[in-house]
Amino acid sequence: xxxxxxxxxxxxxxxxxxxxxxxxxxxxxxxxxxxxxxxxxxxxxxxxxxxxxxxxxxxxxxxxxxxxxxxxxxxxxxxxxxxxxxxxxxxxxxxxxxxxxxxxxxxxxxxxxxxxxxxxxxxxxxxxxxxxxxxxxxxxxxxxxxxxxxxxxxxxxxxxxxxxxxxxxxxxxxxxxxxxxxxxxxxxxxxxxxxxxxxxxxxxxxxxxxxxxxxxxxxxxxxxxxxxxxxxxxxxxxxxxxxxxxxxxxxxxxxxxxxxxxxxxxxxxxxxxxxxxxxxxxxxxxxxxxxxxxxxxxxxxxxxxxxxxxxxxxxxxxxxxxxxxxxxxxxxxxxxxxxxxxxxxxxxxxxxxxx
Length: 355
Description:
Radius of gyration: 21 Å
Number of strands: 8
Helix content: 25-40%
Low-confidence stretches: 1-17
Largest sheet: 2 strands, antiparallel
GO molecular function: heme binding; metal ion binding; peroxidase activity
Organism: Exidia glandulosa HHB12029
Binding site for heme b: 191
Family: Belongs to the peroxidase family. Ligninase subfamily.
Number of helices: 13
Shape: globular
EC number: 1.11.1.-
Strand content: under 5%
Number of domains: 1
């Protein structure tokens, strides 16, 4: 006779895990939870109809709205409900906040999509963000939950960090939502597939690095290149421009890359794409659960496609730049002098195509 102690040991070892029953969806996919089956055609419709099969403007914007929607949250209370879709549910309020400028276009795509498919606004944003990332080579699979209820109140203004806020202010706002300085930099890996629209409207869709269709570490190196001061006064005074024509540099990125609290993490990601992707996935999963109880949601991560691998594991020095153009900021580790340099002369970085 097998003792009860031995049975307990076998169960604990996971030997019987292979016998866990799985559900078969209409398309033949098997899943741990049958509730994920209905999200398979939703996933495919997002890829084909909203993102058009590319890591383009709509995919970028969906990752952006996921951050803006979720970060309206405070551990101390008194702010928004976190990752609850309030950005869509209360678009007449939240889209008027200055920090949310330019998000109205993706709201116009995601709101009717959610209504047509019978899912919550929170799910279309945060499930949609994970699906969007799957189209960007190098992006990790982010743990993805569904089953959010619709938001009952808007997030207040001022909860989304502004790129012209001082580093200390941004870190304080993010700490209020539960994120360390390292996690903040990890979330900024999303800028590797991002572009600006409203800061400088005359150059809409100007990307933050030279490879906006790839989730790579290039943004972390290119922001470290010496720039030139923005000519003019007003709200953009002190902004530093990228030395690469056509590329836009956020002032907050420039400061994070040079601040003693964040510079070494910033540099580490420039030199290790896999680590960057791993840390981003962890921080993004945490973001998507702000204000949510995961025990009341369903984990559907297994139906999120794996993105193609990134072409390079380490960032390269763009054509027309040299190692001497890197503005060293981390006090404990130097940028290696062995980084590869792109051949040719400086060329203008193309804008992200409109969708």
